[in-house]
């Protein structure tokens, strides 16, 4: 039986959980799912309570038509943590998941979070007038949203290779496409818009918990400069660059990613 948690507003979250000890929660990117962390579950669960969570609307969680904002996703994670009485959690946020982590810290404080690991994301995805390294300007965002509505398969077949340094195998292409098309296009567009315009530049200097930044050197989507920018804003944060990765070092360099993360956790 697959484990689900039913939120107070009726949405259900799918999750996988293994191990015991300090809780580590892995939070995926937009349109993605917990399956992207399949190389982490068995490794980290040897020493820690390891939780892979599908955000609402994503993966195997319910496709509820409401609540698709970073703010709501952070509240969902907080409700999950509170209900399960998890203490001193470590939050791992990849891509959009980084925004969920930062929103969580901003809304609910840092007292119950032992550390956070940010994987390949910027302080904001939007190219604000004073933030030229953003991923999207308005025309690009409009184009991507229209592509999701009009021909999602072709749009994603063009987008997914941007996440990886090397060409994917046919097997990997198949399971990734299956995961990223589980949600309806309406949800995909709604959360794409919200996650693309949130901006945490003003909040990041207030983070005081240990922070590890993991960035792929290949800059098809997110430049390493985005990691250096966050490193300057978050006092004491550590930047680790993965030479043979693009957007997914936990898949592209799983062994090194796992070692870097576990070394960080053991020293906080």
Automatic annotation (TrEMBL):
Keywords: Hydrolase. GO terms for cellular component: membrane. Residues 24-259 form the AB hydrolase-1 domain. InterPro entries: AB_hydrolase_1 (IPR000073), AB_hydrolase_fold (IPR029058), AB_hydrolase_sf (IPR050266). Pfam families: Abhydrolase_6. One of its GO terms (molecular function) is hydrolase activity. Gene3D superfamilies: alpha/beta hydrolase. This is Hydrolase, alpha/beta fold family. It comes from Priestia megaterium (strain ATCC 12872 / QMB1551) (Bacillus megaterium).
């Amino acid at each position: 039986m697959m484990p689900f948690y039913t939120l107070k507003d009726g949405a259900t979250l799918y999750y996988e959980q293994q191990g015991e000890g300090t809780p580590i929660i892995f939070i995926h990117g937009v349109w993605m799912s917990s399956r992207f962390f399949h190389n982490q579950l068995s490794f980290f669960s040897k020493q820690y309570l390891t939780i892979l969570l599908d955000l609402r609307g994503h993966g195997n969680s319910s496709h509820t038509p409401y609540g698709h904002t970073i703010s709501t996703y952070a509240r969902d994670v907080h409700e999950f943590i509170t209900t399960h009485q998890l203490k001193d959690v470590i939050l791992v946020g990849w891509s959009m998941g980084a925004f969920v982590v930062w929103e969580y810290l901003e809304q609910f404080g840092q007292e119950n979070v032992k550390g956070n690991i940010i994987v390949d994301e910027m302080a904001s995805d939007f190219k604000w007038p004073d933030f030229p390294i953003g991923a999207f300007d308005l025309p690009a965002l409009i184009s991507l949203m229209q592509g999701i509505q009009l021909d999602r398969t072709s749009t994603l077949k063009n987008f997914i290779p941007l996440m990886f340094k090397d060409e994917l195998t046919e097997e990997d292409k198949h399971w990734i496409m299956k995961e990223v098309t589980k949600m309806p296009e309406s949800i995909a567009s709604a959360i794409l818009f919200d996650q693309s315009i949130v901006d945490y530049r003003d909040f990041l200097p207030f983070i005081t918990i240990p922070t590890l930044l993991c960035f792929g050197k290949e800059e098809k989507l997110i430049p390493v400069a985005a990691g250096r920018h966050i490193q300057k804003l978050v006092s004491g944060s550590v930047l680790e660059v993965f030479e043979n990765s693009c957007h997914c070092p936990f898949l592209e360099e799983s062994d090194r990613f796992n070692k870097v993360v576990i070394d960080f956790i053991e020293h906080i």
